[in-house]
Design a protein that fits this description.
The structure is a homotetramer. Chain A is of the alpha+beta class. Chain A has one domain (4-351): 4-Layer Sandwich (Chorismate synthase, AroC fold). Chain A has 8 helices and 18 strands. Chain A has helices spanning 37-47, 107-114, 130-148, 170-173, 186-199, 226-235, 256-259, 324-351; strands at residues 4-5, 10-15, 21-27, 65-66, 70-71, 74-75, 80-85, 151-159, 162-163, 205-212, 240-245, 263-264, 267-268, 276-277, 280-281, 286-292, 302-305, 311-314. In chain A, helix 1 (37-47) crosses helix 3 (130-148) and helix 1 packs across helix 8 (324-351). The longest helix of chain A has 28 residues, at 324-351. At the C-D interface, strand 1, helix 2, helix 6, strand 11 and helix 7 of C face strand 1, helix 2, helix 6, strand 11 and helix 7 of D. Strand 11 of chain C pairs antiparallel with strand 11 of chain D.
Chain lengths: 363, 363, 363, 363
């Protein structure tokens, strides 16, 4: 099931960027849980394009419909289908590149895989698909918070070469259009993006996320490791090129005595593990980083071939984010929430319920 | 199914480090394929401990038995079970730490998850489990090479702070006990490991791998992306803390014009994508990097708690690799091979067979 | 994934009888296949209520929308979402039984499982869900016919105590509202249903189906047997109480010499196996029978309890089929088509493509 | 994963009848549960061949090894591998029919599917595979009884044309080699089998099973129905040709007023549903029937073709049960136990734990 993820809580998404609609089906969600379309919409608006001048100017109403699985405001345990019609698609922007492959874009591989593709706006490979991850994530996030006290926060760690100071107050993050935790960096980011926009180029970004209150014991050996599932979840987001858990690639140069997180009766003394040992949550905060590549759809000309293999120069004129990584913050949070809840439910199956985190284990 | 991986070609592993045996069941492998126990054993010996003074001195005969799924030297299409009895386990090494949690080790989380654990040698969380990945990978690797011309090579990119020159001749890699592609680095590595061994500490490592000849078109949107499945496969290996595809975290500072791999009729002009676009193989070499943390079982004392939460000082005296990353090279190769073959078979289901790679698309 | 079926070709359905809409997501369907909403609608009309006076009088426009996975009239290989809004739902019919359990109905068990249920029209347990099976089946059926020459036909074998003569001409089946293959039985069935309707009672039915041209070799040991998957598929249809393959329960009294289907160079001499041996298709017609129980929603009063456990007399006044088995014929055909195509694709993954059936193996 | 079944509690089996060994891997079993190899062996002996003169005379020591997943007598939550070496295989019995297809046997379809087969003793399609279902079932059965009070009993309902009186005392069933609940029928069965044995022919059988104490609420819509999963589980047993839940095919002639199980505050007044409504357990006993065809390996000559398509007369001289249905009783029980426990665990994931059955709901 290539378009589904999750083990006992599953999300199946469908829809193309410029097709009639996008949607998802959430299966296995606990019954009796209250959530409204407005709450889902709020989460969607954080991700939505058109919110700032730094992201694509496509207006997406994000008018999400709940088609099933709820009754009188509560989940019923049956599959929850969410749907958003595509309203502001400008397909003709893509007509002239219909027979060309954008360098660095999935249209090359979709074409070679299927022998056919919906070239309008990237079709199924568009970041538009991630809307549904955020919608489904809204349910998981609220459930995690209410039932297990789990809190999730994501932020921009780096944009191009601009590194953010991460000794932050979480309140700052949602106060600027970059999800930047570093107030003093915001003017630099604005300047940078302004210049980038002007140049016609795009840039990569680093997104980080942390979940606190994760119950000790969730996760599983060996191919259902919590970090394995998180890695797959993050790598499934468009434009991701790398995933780290805890210390990540810095671990390469670590000594064992430096890396291992010593334990005292009061808790762990460090968190290089990123809250996961042997694929199972330790009760410390789960911490991860995700690398996003720069957008491949550029108005700066590039060399490529057309569908007949002939060399052409390509220029993409559709509306595109100069840095997809910015908008990736709520998507990373959503994938983190969905993966954590899936593993809590999986744990309940084999081992019974997990307690809310004990105060003894603190990070 | 927490102990299985793969979509249509699945591998299920079982067994603890110091239990009676370890084994695996390979399901969905194509019929009529010739392979011998000796060929599997050859692959296992590359990973085996006791091969050099730099890895654990546990002698593992790796006397693999093929219990099913083969007849007169050929696979029959039914499940292939492989088994290795554990012969050189010294369980009493672990008696004194049976009630203690090694900092940075999975025994803490297994204990909290299950309320019970086989503390001898790490039990199920031991790197011993990866033996079976290499065994199963031997079949995938041979099949990929014979039927699709796919070649896989892995190497040590960095050990602690020692970086290897990667402009290499593949022949060098198997000529030294470090899987190092850089002949001139080998004496440094020997010196480094000697000092490390003496100190009682451990160190992390960076492993890289490349697959050439990967058929364009394998992989799938959106949650069965080839890179998503590779990330999960790599993160499921013990001690992994990070995974990169292609340019990986370097993409964060890339501009779009720099990162995108331009295309000419003769092929791509670069490979920042690492051979995967939109989750689907482009026909270029698939390239990835994996970060391994240092071993957590050290004979240098560390602070921890026992199973009753009381503070204790722990020293681990079992036989352990001072750098698990060295032996991870054949494991990374095996997981890469299994994931690629799984995706070839999945592609055959939906789209029919893939052609062997065309010469037009070169990296 | 409780609301999905299939192994490599999967269908996920969602929606309640009186919710906003019902729909499905078809994943893994081969690309480049032409089908129109009209063709799907034609198949739906065969199943639709309101087509005869013998089935529920709910008018269902069955105005199916294709939301994704198609481009310029062809499947693209990405998930195909189908949606039908519920238009003629009369929810207030159910208000008075909202707190009562219909004997023989799933509202009792849904309530006990989830602690909440959408009582309007049976919610998720309504036969309305099967609409989506027929819609998805339309794609599978057309593909099977065009690519593999597989033809599927279902019919009413028995209604209550009225047994149909099954030595039939397939053309008759679609010429009467009962899917009865026995022209002479049709007046009896009309008479029977008229009396039944008057009485307020309901009745069971036997549905049979046959697929010809099934490629020899599809199916798999041991838990993916073609007959095992067919049994699950049929038992998942509302009101099913039994499934037989080939000779079915008659096999109990068979001798081995009588039951075994002898083989000659010209083909098999009988088909007690129903076209499946060891879970794998023999190339003979696949034949099965399905038993449907009578509808449990009756206007004749029955003893039951309410949600507080107090005894009440229940009368159901919504619109209900007096014999759900009649309309089950296209549903059985659809589930047969989907299961066969799933197994053809699964076979392609492991063994490569199957040839269209050879003339040598005839039933 | 063709050789695995279960959703969150999974069993993967491997091994051929005359290969080195058969085994299974049980994944997802709750930790901390005590069971011994002897307890598993006891269950195996009920199924074992060589126990009576009416079943195959192959001696199977059933010396089961527990290779993993247990520590100090308790399950650890990691995969439990069970293994039995094949000791009394007489492969040369099969040499002369190596190139012939037994009518009614899976060797025809395995050959056509895979182009290769292990012809010795039926290979993977042998009933020998079911040994592992009984072994895995032993764990599920004990767990169900201790934790949920679920009791499972199976029996022979009919052998050929001999119908057993089913108003029984469960104690009788294990007191005769036929699992017959009807003491007075035993001499007839002995006489019948003696004559059958002499004749060289085989015969079919009907097996029934009942589970009491099944928690109300387990099961799930729509494609994970408890009865759907039971149908698949039963149909996956060798030689099964039909499955019924509750009233089964008798439902066809039922009126709704007769079939619906009315409810009073003291419980249901009948159990035509067989304990399942809408795919979810009602708390009444789960009841099912399974039809087994006669063995196809006969010493009476039959017409068939060889692997080159030439007509031959076949005689099978290996050791075969004249009625596989007799030994199927413990297999049906095991599959019922595994399916019920799987659904209890699945229910725990989504809805939390199920209470042991309340006394209010009685059958």
């Amino acid at each position: 099931m290539s378009n589904s993820f999750g083990r006992v809580l599953t999300v199946t998404t469908f829809g193309e960027s410029h097709g009639p609609a996008i949607g998802c089906v959430i299966d296995g969600f606990p019954p009796g849980f209250e959530i409204t379309a407005e709450e889902i919409r709020d989460e969607l608006m954080r991700r939505a394009t058109g919110q700032s001048r730094w992201t694509s100017q496509r207006k997406e109403a994000e008018d999400v419909q709940i088609l099933s699985g709820m009754f009188e405001g509560k989940t019923t345990g049956t599959p929850i289908a969410l749907l958003i019609y595509n309203t502001d698609a400008r397909s003709k922007d893509y007509t002239k590149i219909a027979a060309q492959f954008r360098p660095g874009h999935a249209d090359y591989t979709y074409h070679h895989k299927y022998g056919i593709r919906d070239y309008r706006g990237g079709g199924r490979s568009s970041a538009r698909e991630t809307t549904m991850r955020v919608a489904a994530g809204a349910l998981a996030r609220k459930y995690l918070k209410l039932h297990y006290g789990v809190e999730i926060v994501g932020w921009l760690g780096q944009l191009g070469e601009l590194v953010c100071d991460e000794s932050f107050d979480a309140a700052v993050i949602n106060d600027n259009p970059f999800f930047c935790p570093d107030e003093k960096r915001v003017p630099d980011l604005e300047e940078y993006m302004k210049a980038l926009w002007k140049s016609g180029d795009s840039v990569g970004a680093l997104v980080r996320a942390r979940a606190t209150g994760v119950p000790v014991g969730i996760g599983a050996p060996v191919y259902a490791k919590l970090d394995g599932d998180l890695a797959a979840a993050m790598m499934s987001i468009n434009a991701t090129k790398g995933v780290e858990i805890g210390a990540g690639f810095a671990s390469v140069a670590h000594k064992g005595t430096e890396h291992r997180d010593e334990i005292t009766p009061e808790g762990f003394l460090s968190n290089h593990a990123g809250g996961i040992l042997g694929g199972i949550a330790s009760g410390q905060p789960v911490e991860l980083s995700v690398a996003f590549k720069p957008t491949s759809s550029l108005r700066l000309p590039g060399r490529t071939v057309d569908t007949e293999g002939k060399p052409v120069e390509i220029i993409t004129t559709g509306r595109h984010d100069p840095c997809v990584g910015i908008r990736a913050v709520p998507i990373v949070e959503a994938m983190l929430a969905l993966t954590l809840l899936d593993h809590i439910l999986l744990h309940r199956a084999q081992c019974g319920d997990v307690p809310a985190q004990t105060p003894r284990v603190t990070g």
